[in-house]
Amino acid sequence: MYALKNSTLYCFLFCSCCLLLWACENDIKQVQALGSKKIGVDTIIGAEAYLSQDAKVKAKLTAPLMLRTFTDTVKTEFPKTLHVVFFNDSLKAESQVYAKYGRYLENDSKVFLRDSVIVFNVKGDTLKTEELYWDRTKQLFYTDKHVTILRAGDLPLYGTGLTAKQDFTNYHITNPTGFISVADSTLP
């Protein structure tokens, strides 16, 4: 009787193992997916962020959608517009930026803006272009695309290529076109 119980037990264990091995068949695509690298994406709806430097608030960013992707380079995208207000040391707005699309590469400290990019300052100067880069460390805007600068009470400036301070108080158009008004006292 003892031998019969052992053989029944061994038969049960053997059948159970066979059943488990048969039931544990894996789909090859699922197995391959386990080894693949997944990209992590944080999604923020209604983003509002502040940029500080040396313990001072320098800018406020608002965007309806912000996607932050974690790969070799951390990338933040703003696919549905963004608006940035830059502040001086007294927390007064000195310039603003608007674009329909933006991308920030954290390792490079550079922002790429495109599609209806508008920059304006408190003096009323306005820059319009289709693409613009912002170097956060140098606090400079630059582009090699067509630019239009509207100045308060003056003729508009046109050109291709621009470098400008972040507060847009000083700018240089690489290839200017159009007319420039000159005060009468400077003419011979």
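(ticket continues) Second input and output from the same batch:
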Amino acid sequence: MGLILPTSGLVNANMIKTISHKKYIIQAAILCCLFILGCENDPRKIKELTQTKKLVEEALNVETLFSQNGRMRSKLTAPMMLHYYSDSSYFEFPKSLHVDFFDSSGKMESHLDAHYGKYFETQDKVYLRDSVFVYNIKGDTLWSPDLWWDQRTHKFYTDKKVRIHKNGDRIYGGEGLEANQDLTEINIKQISNSIVNIPDSLAQH
């Protein structure tokens, strides 16, 4: 006759194997949790794991022409241009830019200078900052620390302070402005101060 082991002995052996297997799973789960918690406590590691890599093209001494209905409406020049390829592609001008604006007949009407610019191609808009200066052929000027240029409407707008010199008058605005790019129409939201030039013929009366 063969040796017959007690049933309880077989049950105990299976239980030991099951417990050992469960113990391994629990240990692995704990290690995973500790790893995740470690990442959560290290923002640098999280950034490295989640940051999307951007492809960048660099160009020097660029000249870009913008047209509408087959006619050139503006010309942008800059010492450096960076083209970022990401979910929303854009162009950056980190070392200043200059723009010449033209009317529908091709005649130059105004100019723009800024220390920094970012062009959103899909929106046809350019964000400008750091001492933005616009001036037309008549000598009227617009200054603002922060300005948007909308290519579709040919207008500037901002919610920052502005300074206007027009027809000899100096006007200061505290809450933004909207103006067309040749500065013939300017709408200041709130005038904080103004100095009006009075002709000599009126001042004598």
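Agent notes: Residues 1-25, 196-205 have pLDDT under 50 and may be disordered. The first helix runs from residue 7 to 40. Closing as not reproducible unless the customer responds.
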